[in-house]
Amino acid sequence: MGTGAGFPGLPLLIYRPDLKVTFFDSLQKRLTFLQKLVDQLGLSAEFLHGRAEDAAHQPVYRSAFDVVTSRAVARLNVLAEWALPYVKQGGYFISLKGAQYEDELKEAENALKMLGGKVARVKAVEIPGLDEVRAVIYIQKVGESPKKYPRKPKMAVKKSFNKGRGAIMSLKKNAMSRRCCLLTLAAPAFADEIQKPDIEAHAAYVMDADTGDELYSKNADDLAYPGSTTKIMTAILGIELGKEQAMMDKPLHITDDIYDIDSDASVLGIKPGDQITLSNGLTGMMLVSGCDAAVAVAETVTPTEADFVAKMNEKAAALGATHTHFANPHGLPDSNHYSTARDMAVIAAYGMKLPEFQSMVSRSEFDMPYMDGGFKHCVSTNEFLTSGFEGANGIKTGTTNAGGPCLVVSATRDGRTVIASIMNSSDRYGDAQKLMTYAFSALKPTENVYIVRHAPAGQTLSDIQEKQQQAAELASQQTTEQTSDASQTENTPSQAVDKDYVPFTPAA
Predict the structure, then answer these.
(1) How far apart are CA 35 and CA 47, in angstroms?
(2) What is the mean pLDDT of residues 161-188?
């Protein structure tokens, strides 16, 4: 369950082709990949698309397996809620745990009793190259788990949900008809039990792009040089102003001003006379971090670069990026050019609501075409896109001597998008991996994601809730006034009252 790339089910199936394996995952695309791979290997398996909390309540899976195994995806007391309902009485839940396994065992005593589990064996394991001892914990199912477990995400108080990796398997053992199951389970984790990552960056901020919720913060409001992450705002304005002026398919206005940048600045390599559409120029700019292209974009959608910079600052203020001030469209150091980790995340979250922006920043490579023929091959500077991180889909790097290495990244899993902004890190990609992994484990279930996702770009959940509250107060006020008016007219013979009249109530 939550099989991901097929571990451990696929290796075991290769080693033991007699295993009957059911790969279980919430994303169909993973299962499609595994099905093709299994077919190519000449093996046989079953594939089940669904969620852990749902399948456990289906009779075909509940109490159906002899063995359930899990990797270290959550504290033992929490993980047991998800695992034990799948195990038949007499079967085992096998959990692989780290150095704190003794503490987790004590913590899980009550949960195991409630769920019908009993610790049968604890096997300490020493791994070459590691000082700390690990453990394999064998928990026998001695009683039925209450029917209400596992709980739905929205029913579990103060919990967030983590995806683990694994597979549901049954084993044909010699001539016997008994079934054996190996299950690695996606498990709930208490939000306050998730350890925040230790990162190298001076400042960082991570947010739920849909709700605006803060997921991680470190010196998030310290002023810093944003470097070429500045081009996130340049791209946003280039898209919005370009569409407004019907300029997206028109040529970039490339002047000699593109040469008025530092000689060591990153460039797209364009020159006056080149025929490149604004749309393609923006894409090339975002991939290779072209400072020359940023100047050309600014002079294409506004009369002057100064006019464009003024609009950058207006946009930042409108988005609530109150600790940001831009002095140019490319991000080269300037004492009057600064931002914060929080502000850059907010700006990026707005950008990711624009389809054109999403398309630009999600590319790892791009053959930028010239309108008069030929193309320029562009490779993204954002290595996070090709790092293998599940769901990675943007956004932008930035590096200057003054501001150090910076990075803004985005990833989407199961319809939830997370944005991380990193300032001045000696290991920005390592930090990004840690922060994003943590963020997805700390995401809170919310019924408001759909509402926010379909709201105008830049609106957060708090914005919507505030407007809903204002509308509710206005509706209440109008109802009171109408009631008062009605009572006054009851005693006025000349006033006819329509009993079917329904007062207008503004939509929330």
Answers:
(1) 7
(2) 37
Give the mean pLDDT of the chain.
Answer: 81
Q: Indicate whether 172 pLDDT > 70.
A: no
Find the domain containing 499 and state its range.
473-508
Question: Of 129, 157, 190, which one is at a domain's C-terminal end?
Answer: 190
Query: Helix/strand/coil (H, E, C) string of 207-257?
Result: EECCCCCEEEEECCCCCECCHHHHHHHHHHHHHHHHHHCCCCCCECCCCHH
Q: Is the pTM of this model over 0.70?
A: no
Q: Which residue has the tokens 């499609």?
A: 32
Query: Is the model's pLDDT at 446 over the cut of 50?
Result: yes
SS3 399: strand
Q: Mean pLDDT over residues 444-462, rounded?
A: 55
Same domain, 307 and 222: yes
Select from 48, 26, 37, 14 the least CA-distant residue to 390.
26
Strands 375-379 and 365-369: antiparallel
Q: How far apart are CA 357 and CA 352, in angstroms?
A: 6
d(CA 394, CA 209): 13
- My answer on whether 40 and 104 are in the same domain is yes
